[in-house]
Amino acid sequence: MKKVGIIIKREYNTRVKKKSFIILTLLMPVLFAAITILPTYLATMNNSEERTVAVYDGSGIFLGRLESSEYTKFHFIPKEEYNKLRDNLKDSKYYAILAIPPNVVTTNNVEIFSEKNVPFDLKNSIDRNLSSIVEKDKRSALLKEAAVPDLERKLEAARTNIHVNTIRVGDKGEEHKSSTEIAMVLGYIFGFMIYIFIFIYGTMVMRGVMEEKQNRIVEVIISSVKPFELMMGKIVGIALVGLTQFAIWVVLFIGIFQAAKGFIPDMSPDQAQNLMAQSQMSGQMENVAQSSQVQEIFSMMSSINFPLIIGCFFFFFIGGYLLYSSLFGAVGSAIDSEEDAQQFTLPVTIPLIIAIIVMMNAITNPEGQIAFWFSLVPFTSPVVMMVRIPFGVPAWELILSMVLLVATFAGTVWVAGKIYRTGILMYGKKPTWKELGKWLTYRS
Q: What percent of the chain has pLDDT over 90?
C-alpha cells in the first residue's frame, strides 16, 4: 500500500501542477458563468436606441392603432411619401418602412424595408401588434354575427387556466410540493456531468499509461512496484485530480453566482409576486405567466433533496470512473500508439454513448422499463440513475444499483489488471482481441 500511495502522490502532484490543469480549472467557471449569466444580465438591460418606423397602411385597418413602445415609435405616412422613401430611405429619419398591402387580411403578409437586418425584438413587436389587431377585428365581426347579448364578456369570463400542482407523498405520508421541470433539469445536468467526467478522466488514464509506455519510463517503475499497484495508483491519483478540480469549480461557481447577484435582479418569491401583481394591473398576460413560473421555481427548489443528489453524484462518479478508467488503463497498456487506440476504445465507450441516449428517454419517463433496467446495468447506471434520482427512486433500487456497480468494478479491475500486467511490457506488436483473451489466462 505504501508503494501505491507513492504512485498516487506522484500522479496527483504531476497533474495538478500542470499549467493546462490550472488554466482549465480557473477558466472553466468563468466561461460557464459568461455563458449563463451574461445573457441574463444583457436581457435585463433595456435597449436605449429609439427607432422610428414609417408605416404605410394600404388597408386602412391599422391607422392609428399600432402601439408604440418606449423605444419603438410608429409614424403613419401617405402613399406619396412612402413611394419617395422607398427610393431614398438612407437619407430619411426613419429606421425602417413597414408596408401593409390592401389585402393583408387574406394574404397575412406585410413587408419591412430597412438598410440593415431588422432586430428580432422589433420584428416580433410588429408581428404581435398586427396579429392582435386583425384577431380583434375578426373576433368582433364574429360576435356581431352571432348576435348574442354581452357575448364577449361571457367568453372572457369563460377563459380558464388550470394550474397543475404536483405533490410528492413520502413513506410516512408526509406531503411535499414537487416540480417535474426542476427534476428534469437537475437529472440532465448531473447525468451529463458524470458522462463528461468519466470520459475525460478515463481517457486521461489511458493516455498517461501510453506516454509512460512509449517513453519506457514504465520499465523503471515496474522494477520497483507490481503492475497492478502501478495501475491502481494511477487510477486513484487521477480520480483525486478530478475531485480536486470539481471541488474548486463548486467553490468558484458559488463565488461567481453570489457576486453576480449584485448585477441581476433578485427574483425572490415576494418580488416575483409583486411583479405578477404589476403585470396583472397592466394586462401583460405573458409577464404574469413568467413571474408565476419564477415564483413556482423558488418554492419547488426547497423540496429537492440536494444532500441525497450530491451524495449519489459523488458515489456514481467515483464508481463509474473507477470502472471505466480501469478499462481505459488496460487499453493504454495494450497499445503502442494513438492509431491502435481506436480499435479498443470504441467497445469501451459504446456503453457510455448508450447511457447518454437512454438518458433522454429517462428524463421524460423515469419510471419506465428502459430507465429502470439501464439504471441497474453498471456500465450505464452512473448516468441513467443520476437522471432518475431527482424524480425519486425507491431505496432498494438505489442500493441494488450501487451494489452491482461496486461488484462490476471489482470484476473489471481484475480483468484490467490481467491485461495491464502483460500488455505494459509488450512492445512492437499490435495485439488482437484473441490475444487479449489469452493474457487473461496467464499466471504471474
A: 11
212 Cβ neighbours under 8 A, 6+ residues apart: 218, 221
Assess contact for 326 and 414: CB atoms under 8 A: no
**CA–CA distances in Å: residue 11 to residues 23, 239, 387, 425:** 18, 10, 32, 20
What span, in angstroms and rounded, lies between the C-alpha atoms of 166 and 138?
A: 38
**Measured at the alpha carbon of residue 219, what is the angle toward residues 8 and 235, in degrees to the nearest 5?**
25
Contact predicate 444/425, CB 8 Å: no
CA gap 69, 51 in Å, rounded = 10
Distance, CA of 45 to CA of 278 (rounded, Å): 19
First to last CA, the chain: 19
Contact 424, 218 (CB under 8 A): yes
What's the rounded Cα separation, in Å, for the pair 55 and 416?
74
CA–CA dist 302, 297 (Å, integer)? 9
Classify 377 as helix, strand or coil.
coil
Collapse the DSSP code of 383 into the 3-class scheme (helix H, G, I; strand E, B; otherwise coil) and give the result.
Answer: helix
Measured CA to CA, the distance from residue 381 to residue 367 in angstroms comes to: 14
Q: What is the pLDDT of residues 241-278, one digit of tens each?
A: 888 888 888 788 777 767 766 655 555 545 545 544 54
**Order of strands across the sheet with 96-100?**
72-76, 51-57, 96-100, 111-114
pTM of the model as a whole: 0.65
- Dig out the grid coordinates for 42 from the structure: 444583457
CA 200 to each of CA 307, 349, 354: distance values in angstroms, whole numbers, following the listed order: 25, 11, 17
Q: Can you tell me the mean pLDDT for 161-166? A: 72
- Which alpha helices (DSSP H) does 165-226 contain, by range? 180-214, 217-222
Number of C-beta neighbours around residue 169 at 10 A? 10
- Maximum C-alpha span of the chain: 99
Rg of the chain on CA atoms, in Å: 31
Identify the CA nearest to 68 among candidates 44, 49, 51. 51
What are the DSSP calls for 19-52, one per residue? HHHHHHHHHHHHHHHHHHHHHHHHHHS-----EE
242 contacts 321 by C-beta, under 8 angstroms: yes
A 10 A CB-CB count for 120 gives 8
**Residue where the block lists cell 428517454:** 361
Residues 115-121: contacts with CB within 8 Å, 24+ apart?
115/89, 115/90, 121/47
> How many C-beta neighbours within 10 Å does residue 37 have?
17
Closest of 20, 433, 432, 421 to residue 231, by C-alpha: 421
Closest CA to 378 of 399, 413, 407, 419: 407
